[in-house]
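pls design
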């Protein structure tokens, strides 16, 4: 059995190349996680998992390490096509309770639209787990205010990579990741 992650950091990157795999590699380089053997996992933020900065997290990575992450990835070779890859986090106030990570990859959205979308997804999943009653058809801004007043959700945040397909028709790849780390818990 694997240990439970104790830290997570968010990162993003964009790459462009005539080969789709190389564009993906360049996006991972831009995100500073290209030397990892990435294993994508689903979207639970473990209890007591501390959010750290990319600058804190990247130096803890070892080349070739099997590294667990939640990843969003979007690719295009259509000139001018807008792509987004976005990760959202919703963390409960009670740190003994798990939170949610959402991922979205798509076309046509702006960076801001994608960020709001994944924060909404993560917060909605967490709210339903915590038993917060809400109108699923209400706008994200309305639900965000409701979540803030319940005092059960501490915050939501997101990381988005947005790009426009290269004019040359080369492949453009955008990635956003929540990368898990297994540092010992502080006493």
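designed seq:
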């Amino acid at each position: 059995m694997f240990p439970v992650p104790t830290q997570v950091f968010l990162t993003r990157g964009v790459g462009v190349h005539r080969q789709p795999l190389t564009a993906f590699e360049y996006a991972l380089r831009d995100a500073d996680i290209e030397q990892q053997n990435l294993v994508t996992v689903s979207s639970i933020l473990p209890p007591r998992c501390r959010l750290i900065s990319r600058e804190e997290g990247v130096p803890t990575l070892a080349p070739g390490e099997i590294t667990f992450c939640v990843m969003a990835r979007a690719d295009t070779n259509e000139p001018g096509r807008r792509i987004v890859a976005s990760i959202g986090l919703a963390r409960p106030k009670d740190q003994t309770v798990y939170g949610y990570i959402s991922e979205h990859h798509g076309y046509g959205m702006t960076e801001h639209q994608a960020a709001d979308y994944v924060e909404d997804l993560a917060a909605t999943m967490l709210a339903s787990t915590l038993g917060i009653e809400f109108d699923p058809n209400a706008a994200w801004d309305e639900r965000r205010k409701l979540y803030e007043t319940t005092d059960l959700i501490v915050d939501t945040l997101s990381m988005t990579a947005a790009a426009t397909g290269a004019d040359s028709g080369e492949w453009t790849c955008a990635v956003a990741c929540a990368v898990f780390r297994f540092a010992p818990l502080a006493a």
